[in-house]
Write a structure and sequence with these properties.
The complex is a heterodimer of chains A (538) and B (289). Chain A is mainly alpha-helical and 538 residues long. Chain A has a single domain, classed as Cytochrome c oxidase-like, subunit I domain (Cytochrome C Oxidase, Chain A). Chain A has 14 helices and no strands. Chain A is globular and about 65 Å long. The two termini of chain A are 39 Å apart. The relative contact order of chain A is 0.11. With 289 residues, chain B is mainly α. The longest helix of chain B is centred in the N-terminal third of the chain and has 40 residues. Chain B is globular, with a radius of gyration of 23 Å. The N terminus of chain B is likely disordered. Classes of the chains: A mainly alpha (538), B mainly alpha (289). At the A-B interface, helix 4, helix 5, helix 6 and helix 7 of A face helix 1, helix 3 and helix 7 of B. The complex binds protoporphyrin IX containing FE and copper (II) ion. Copper (II) ion (CU) binds next to helix 7 of chain A.
Chain lengths: 538, 289
C-alpha cells in the first residue's frame, strides 16, 4: 500500500476503503466524491438531453405530432432544471473536487464528510423532482424560472419541486463552503493567493457567488410554497403583493447563477490554453480581477431579464448600462486567451480544440447577450427563440464545452490512461458542427418572431426548425462518443499516462503520478521553482 | 502563510452524511405528501425523517466531539471549521435578505405603485381606484379583513431586551471560559438558552394574541405575509439556537471545552449573535417603522 497515508484518527492507514458501501456511500475522499459528481452529472446530462430530443422531435415540423402541449411544457421546464442543477453545476463541482486539492497541494477537501453530504443530497433531490412526472397532474410546467401566478396553478408537483430545490441549494451551499475553506486554509506553503491556478481562482469566486445566491433562491421558492399552501399573499396584487417581486428575487439569484455556470469553465479554459499554446497565460492578474469584477457586476444586472415587465424607465436604464459594463471584463478574458495563443507553438489535441471553440462560440453568445441587454432591442427579442439561442451558446458551447475541455484535459491524470485522441477528435468535430446547426438558426427564428416554450408554430418557421432539430439529433447522438471515450479510457486503454500528461502543462497536479495516490499529499508539498504555473505573476 | 508545516489530517469515512441525506429526503418527501394530502402517511414520513435527522445530529456531532476530545484536530482543522461556520452564517444572512428584500420592495415600491404613484397611475385608476396604499396594508382587496398590528413597545420591546441580555450572558460565559473559569461560565451559559426559550414563549403568545384579538394572520395581505414569515423564520432560528446552546451547555458541564480549544462554543455564540442582530433589524423594520 502507499506510504502516503495522511494522518488518520484510527489504525486503518491502508488507503482506499474496501467495499462498495464504504468506498462510495461513506466516501470522504475528494477524488471518489469528485468521480461521483462527474458520473452523476453525465447521467443527468443524458436525462436532460433525452428531454431535449423529444422537444426537438416535436418541433421538427409545425403542428402537434408527438406529445401533448402540457407535457411539452413539463419537458422544457424539467430540461432546464435538470441541465442547470443536475448536469452543469454538479459537473463543475466534480471538477473542483478532483482538481482543487491537487492544484494547491492539499490532502483533500477541508471538510470531507460534509463533502459527502453535499454530493449525496443531489440524487435524492432529483428523485424528488423527477418523481413528479408520475404524479397525477404531472410535473411543474411553468418554465424553469417558475414564475407565479402560473406556477401556483401546478398540481401536486410544486411542493416536491420546491423541496428538491431546497435540497439542491443545501448541497450547493455546503459544497461551496467546502471549496472556500479548502482554498483559503489548505494551500501548501508557497502557493500564495496570487500564484494559484486560475481554475482555483474561478472556483473561489464562484463559491462565494453560490453562498450568496442559493439562499435567496430558497427564499423565493419558499414564498411560492407559502403562497400556494399557507395562504400568504407575497405574489398577489389584491393583497398588496406583486408577481414581479418573485421575478426580482428569482433573478437576483438567476443572473449570478449563470455566472456560476460559466466562471469555472473560464477557469478550465485558462488552464488549457497556456498548456497547448506552450506559453504562460497572458495577463494573469487582470484575469483574476476580471473574474472578480464579473462576479460583482453580476449582482446588479438582474433586471435585464425583466425589461418588458413594466419597470420604471430609470431602472431599465440602470440595468441596461450595468449589463453593458459586464462586457468589459468579459472582453478582457477573451482578449487574454487570444493573446495567450498569439505566437504560441500550438498543438490541437482534443482539449485544445474544445477550448478554442469555446472562445469563439462563447463570444457569439456574449454578443447576443449584449444585443439582449439593450432595452429597446430586448423589447423585440424577449421571450423569443433569440433568447434560447443566446443562452444555449453560453451554456452549451460555453459551460458544457468548458466541462468537456476539462474532462479531456484531466482524464489521463485521473485514470492514468490516455483517452482515444481519434475518438476525441470525432467527438469534437461532430459536436462543434452539429451544435451550430442546432442553435445558430434559432437566432433567425427568434428575430423572425418565433416565441419560446411552444410545441407548435407558424409554418413560416418550418425550415429553420427542421434544420435545428437535425442538428439537435446529431449533437445528441454525438455525445455517446464522449461516453464511449470515457469508458474506453477508464476500462480499456492500454497506453499509460505520464505524470506530466501534456508537454506544456505546468502546475502542482502534474507533479503527482497519474493517477495520483489516494491521499494526494500527506504533508504539504515543497514548492520548487518551476512547479507553479504563475509563480512569476506576483 | 497558508498553513503550518506538519502532516495533514484527513478524517476517516463516515456513515453519518448518507444518513443525513436519507433523513432529509424522507423529511421532505413526507412534507410534500402532507401538503398535497396525497397519502395519509405524509405526517408520519415527516416525523420519521425528523427522527432520523435528530439521530444523525447526535451521531455525527457526537463523533466529531469525541474525535476533538481525543485531540485529533489540528489548528488547521479548527480553522476549517471556523470558516465553515462563518460562511454558513453568511448564507443565513442572505436567506433573511430575501425576505427583508420582499418587505422593502413591497413597502417601498409595490404598495405605492398600487396606490397610483409613479408608473402605477393607470393600474390604480383602472383596477384599484379606491386603494390608497399606506403601511400596514392588506392590499386593495383587504385580504384577510381589517386587522391591527402588534404594538412595538409591549412584548416586542421586552423580547428585544431578552435577546440583548442573552447576548450579554453568552459573552460573559465566553470570557469566563477563556479565563479558564468553568464555575463562573456555567451559570451564564445556562442562562442564555433559558432567555432564548423565554423569547420563543413570548413570541408564541404574541402570535396567539395576533390571531385571536388583532385579526392579524398569515392571510392578512402583504403585511401579514411579511410579518409572520420574517418573525416566524427568526423564531425558528432562536429555537434552533437555543437547542444548540443546551448542547453546548451540556458539553461545557462535561468539561469538553478548554481555554483555547472550544470551537463549538464559539460557533454557537456567533450564531446566537447573528440571530440577535436579525432580531434588531426585525424590531426596527417590522415593528417600529
Ligand atoms: C456578455 C454577457 C451576457 C449578457 C450581456 C447577457 C444578457 C442576457 C439578457 C439581456 C437576457 C434576457 C433576455 C430576455 O429574456 O429577453 C439573457 C438571458 C439569458 N442568459 Fe445571458 N447574458 C450574458 C451572458 C450569459 C452567460 C455567460 C450565461 C450562462 C452561462 C447566460 C445565460 C442566460 C440564460 C440562461 C438566459 C435565459 C433565462 C431565461 O429567461 O430562461 N448569459 N442574457
Ligand atoms: Cu442575466
Amino acid at each position: 500500500m502507499s506510504t502516503h497515508a495522511a494522518t488518520h484518527d484510527d489504525a486503518h492507514h491502508d488507503d482506499a476503503p474496501k467495499g462498495f458501501v464504504h468506498r462510495w456511500l461513506f466516501a470522504t475522499n475528494h477524488k471518489d466524491i469528485g468521480t461521483m459528481y462527474l458520473v452523476f452529472a453525465l447521467v443527468m446530462f443524458f436525462v436532460g438531453g433525452s428531454m431535449a430530443m423529444v422537444i426537438r422531435a416535436e418541433l421538427f415540423e409545425p403542428g402537434l405530432q408527438l406529445v401533448q402541449p402540457y407535457f411539452f411544457n413539463e419537458l422544457t421546464t424539467l430540461h432546464g432544471l435538470v441541465m442547470i442543477f443536475g448536469a452543469i453545476m454538479p459537473a463543475l463541482v466534480g471538477l473542483a473536487n478532483w482538481q482543487i486539492p491537487l492544484m494547491i497541494g492539499a490532502p483533500d477537501m477541508a471538510l470531507p464528510r460534509m463533502n459527502n453530504l453535499s454530493f449525496w443530497l443531489l440524487p435524492f433531490a432529483f428523485l424528488l423532482m423527477l418523481s413528479t412526472l408520475f404524479l397525477p397532474g404531472g410535473a411543474v410546467a411553468g418554465g424553469w424560472v417558475m414564475y407565479p401566478p402560473l406556477v401556483l396553478q401546478s398540481g401536486e408537483s410544486l411542493a416536491f419541486t420546491i423541496f428538491a430545490i431546497h435540497l439542491m441549494g443545501i448541497s450547493s451551499i455546503m459544497g461551496s463552503i467546502n471549496i472556500i475553506a479548502t482554498i483559503l486554509n489548505l494551500r501548501a506553503p508557497g502557493v500564495d493567493l496570487l500564484k494559484m491556478p486560475l481554475f482555483v481562482w474561478s472556483w473561489l469566486i464562484t463559491a462565494f457567488l453560490l453562498i450568496a445566491i442559493m439562499p435567496v433562491l430558497a427564499g423565493a421558492v419558499t414564498m411560492l410554497l407559502t403562497d400556494k399552501y399557507f395562504g400568504t399573499n407575497f405574489f398577489n396584487a389584491a393583497g398588496g403583493g406583486d408577481v414581479l417581486l418573485y421575478e426580482h428575487i428569482f433573478w437576483f439569484f438567476g443572473h449570478p447563477e449563470v455566472y456560476v455556470m460559466i466562471l469555472p469553465a473560464f477557469g478550465v479554459i485558462s488552464e488549457v490554453i497556456p498548456t497547448f499554446a506552450r506559453k504562460p497565460l497572458f495577463g494573469y492578474k487582470p484575469m483574476v480581477y476580471a473574474i472578480a469584477s464579473i462576479a460583482f457586476l453580476s449582482f446588479i444586472v438582474w433586471a435585464h431579464h425583466m425589461f418588458t415587465v413594466g419597470l420604471p424607465v430609470g431602472a431599465q436604464l440602470f440595468f441596461m448600462y450595468a449589463t453593458m459594463l459586464i462586457a468589459v471584463p468579459t472582453g478582457v478574458k477573451v482578449f487574454n486567451w487570444v493573446a495567450t495563443m498569439w505566437k504560441g507553438s500550438i498543438t490541437f489535441e482534443t482539449p485544445m480544440l474544445f477550448a478554442v471553440s469555446f472562445v469563439i462560440l462563447f463570444t457569439i453568445g456574449g454578443f447576443s447577450g449584449l444585443m439582449l441587454g439593450l432595452v429597446p432591442a430586448d423589447y423585440q427579442y424577449h421571450n423569443s427563440y433569440f433568447v434560447v439561442a443566446h443562452f444555449h451558446y453560453v451554456l452549451v458551447t460555453g459551460a458544457a464545452f468548458g466541462i468537456m475541455t476539462g474532462v479531456y484535459y484531466w482524464l489521463p491524470k485521473w485514470t492514468g490512461h490516455m483517452y482515444s485522441e481519434k475518438l476525441g477528435k470525432w467527438h469534437f468535430w461532430l459536436s462543434v458542427i452539429s451544435v451550430n446547426v442546432l442553435f445558430f438558426p434559432q437566432h433567425f427564428l427568434g428575430l423572425a418572431g418565433m416565441p419560446r416554450r411552444i410545441p407548435d408554430y407558424n409554418v413560416a418557421f418550418a425550415d429553420w426548425n427542421m434544420v435545428s432539430s437535425i442538428g439537435g439529433f446529431v449533437f445528441g447522438a454525438t455525445q455517446l462518443l464522449f461516453v464511449a471515450n470515457i469508458i474506453y479510457t477508464v476500462y480499456f486503454a492500454k497506453a499509460r499516462a505520464p505524470a506530466r500528461v501534456w508537454e506544456g502543462a505546468r502546475g502542482l497536479e502534474w507533479e503527482l503520478p497519474s493517477p495520483p495516490p489516494h491521499h494526494s499529499y500527506s504533508t504539504p508539498p515543497e514548492i520548487r521553482p518551476g512547479m507553479l504555473a504563475h509563480e512569476d505573476a506576483h | 502563510m497558508s498553513q503550518q508545516a506538519g502532516s495533514y489530517y484527513v478524517p476517516h469515512g463516515s456513515r453519518w452524511p448518507i444518513v443525513a441525506a436519507v433523513g432529509l429526503f424522507i423529511f421532505m418527501w413526507g412534507a410534500a405528501h402532507w401538503l398535497d394530502g396525497i397519502t395519509p402517511e405524509g405526517p408520519l414520513l415527516l416525523a420519521a425523517g425528523a427522527a432520523i435527522l435528530v439521530f444523525m445530529f447526535f451521531g455525527w456531532f457526537g463523533e466529531v466531539a469525541r474525535e476533538s476530545l481525543k485531540g485529533l484536530y489540528s489548528a488547521q482543522v479548527d480553522l476549517s471549521f471556523r470558516m465553515g461556520m462563518m460562511w454558513f452564517i453568511f448564507s443565513e444572512v442572505m436567506f433573511f435578505g430575501a425576505f427583508f428584500g420582499a418587505l422593502f420592495y413591497s413597502r417601498g415600491l409595490q404598495v405605492p405603485w398600487l396606490a397610483g404613484e409613479g408608473h402605477g397611475a393607470l393600474t390604480n385608476l383602472y383596477l384599484f381606484r379606491d386603494y390608497t396604499g399606506g403601511w400596514p396594508t392588506n392590499g386593495p382587496d383587504a385580504i384577510g379583513g381589517p386587522f391591527q398590528i402588534v404594538p412595538p413597545w409591549g412584548e416586542p420591546l421586552v423580547n428585544t431586551l431578552i435577546l440583548l441580555s442573552s447576548s450579554v450572558t453568552i459573552t460573559i460565559a465566553h470570557h469566563a471560559l477563556r479565563d479558564g473559569n468553568r464555575r463562573r461560565m456555567l451559570p451564564w451559559l445556562v442562562a442564555t438558552p433559558i432567555l432564548g426559550m423565554l423569547f420563543v414563549f413570548l413570541q408564541a403568545r404574541e402570535y396567539m394574541d395576533a390571531y385571536t384579538h388583532l385579526n392579524l394572520t398569515l392571510h392578512s395581505g402583504i403585511y401579514g405575509a411579511t410579518f409572520f414569515i420574517l418573525t416566524g423564520f427568526h423564531g425558528l432560528h432562536v429555537t434552533l439556537g437555543s437547542i444548540m446552546l443546551w448542547v453546548i451547555a451540556y458539553r461545557a458541564w462535561r468539561g469538553h471545552f478548554s481555554k483555547d480549544h472550544h470551537f463549538a462554543f464559539e460557533a454557537v455564540a456567533w450564531y446566537w449573535h447573528f440571530v440577535d442582530i436579525v432580531w434588531l433589524c426585525l424590531f426596527l423594520f417590522v415593528y417600529i417603522m
